[in-house]
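In this supplementary section we document a worked example of the pipeline. Step one takes a protein sequence of length 80 as its only input; no multiple sequence alignment statistics are reported here. Step two produces a three-dimensional model, which step three serialises into structure tokens for compact storage. The input and output of this example are shown verbatim.
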Amino acid sequence: MKENLRDCLKELILFNDPRNTNFEVTNEDGKYHKATIKDLQELNLSDLYFIADLLGMSDLYLKDGDQNERPARSDLPHCR
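The serialised model returned by step three reads:
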């Protein structure tokens, strides 16, 4: 889990570096597979939510203050 903005940005850079050709994530069964575009989008979105929270801008992704509008962090894939 990220502790600060620096860690979050480092993670985003790593995830999105085109030289990272062996990027894998876990599926629901805990098995690893090559990351898809959707996996990358979910990971990016998780980090963007974290950054928005740090900056006090959760309104960017919450509708009418409803915390249920964003996916739970535990629902997002884990990378290695």
